[in-house]
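Researcher: Here's a chain I'd like modeled. Treat it as a single chain, no partners, no ligands.
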Amino acid sequence: MKVFVRNQWKWIASFVHSALLMVTCYALWNNPYTFSGEASLIQWLNVGNSLLAGDDLPKDLLLVNIAYDREFVDFYDEKGLPCGQIDITDRSKLTELFRYVDQAHNHKYIICDVYFDASLQTPSDDSLYALIGRIPRLVVPKHEGEVISEQIAHKAACSDYKTNIIENNLLKYQYLQHGEKSIPVYMWSELTGGIFEKTFFGYRMNGKVATNSIILNFQTQLRSTYNGNDEKNYLNLGADLLEALQIVGPEALFADKTILIGDFCEHDIHSSVVGNIPGILINYNACLMLEQDKPVVGFALWAVLFIVFMITSFSCFSDRSLWDLLLHKGIFKRDVIQFFCTWLGLTFVLTVLNLLIYFVWGRFIEIFIFSGYFTFLKTGFDMYYLIKNKKI
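Model: Modeled as a single isolated chain. C-alpha cells:
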C-alpha cells in the first residue's frame, strides 16, 4: 500500500496510458495493413504447419475449376467504340452447371468466384442470371469501381483485399469493405444468421466486440492438383464435372457440399504468407474464421494486453528503466548503450507476447511501433529525472 501511495500518480498515469494504448492496438487491428514486418514472422510460423499438413482437402468441399472453360466476347472502350474480343468464363457451361444445382437443391453453400461485368454480354446471360437469382445459399463477387448486372446484384458481395508497399503479400482480410459485406460475411450470415456490423466505437460480431480486419491462417490450402490417393483436388468444369453429372447425377455430387467455383490454377492466383493461393480460397478461409469466432476480441486477450501495457508504462514513468528492473541497475553506464538495450529488451518482451497472442488468439501487435514508442517515452522520462535530480 505504501508503494502505491508513494507512486500514486504514476499508477494512475499508467492506467490511463494503458487504456489509450489498448485503444491504439484495437485501431491497428482494424487497419487492413501491417507496418512492422509481421508477415515474415508469420511466414516462418507457418512453415511447420505446411510441412505437417497433407494434400487432402475437407470431404465437404467440391472445388470446380473454370480456368480452362473460356469463351470470347466483344469488348468496347469507355466511349463505346469496339476494341476487339476478350476471353471470359464460358457462361453457357456455368448455366448448365447451375441447372443441375437447381435440380438437386441439396448443396450447403456456393461461392461462385466469377465476375459478371454488366458490359460483357453473352446469349446465355438471361438464363444464367435467372438461375443465380433464385438458387439459395449462393454468392458472387463484386469489386470496387466496377458494375455488376442488376439481375444478380442482390447476390453479390465485396471480394477485395489490400496490400501496401511494406507488405505486398496478402496477410489481413477486411470483413466489411466500403461499408458493405464481403463474401465471407455474406456467406456466414446466410448460414448462421449472424450479424457483423460497424458501430460508433468499432465493430461487433453477434453483439461482441470484434475487429474488421484479421490475419488469415489459411486452414484450407490447395497444394497440388492431386491428393495422396491420386484423386483430383478440383474438377474442371467442362472436362470433368459436367461429364460426371450426366453419369452420376447432381443429387449425389452436391449433397451437403460447399461448392467453390473459381480459377484454381491460372489467373486468379494471389501471393500470401503461405505461398500462392487461389482467390476463392482466400474468401473461404476468411469465412471459416468467422465460423470459429476468430474476429471476436475476448476478455482474456484484453486482460493480457492491459497487464503488459500497465507494467511497461509504470516502468517508463519511473526513475528506473525496464532493463534495470529485469537485470541489475547500473550495468550499462553509457546512455547510447542503455537506450539500445532498452529497445532490445522491449522488443524481446513484445515478441514473446506476440507469439503467445498469435498461437492462442491468432492476432499480432505491431512490435516495432510499440517498442519504439516505449523506448522514446522511457528516454524522455529518464532525461526528466536526470534534470530534476540535477545530475546534468
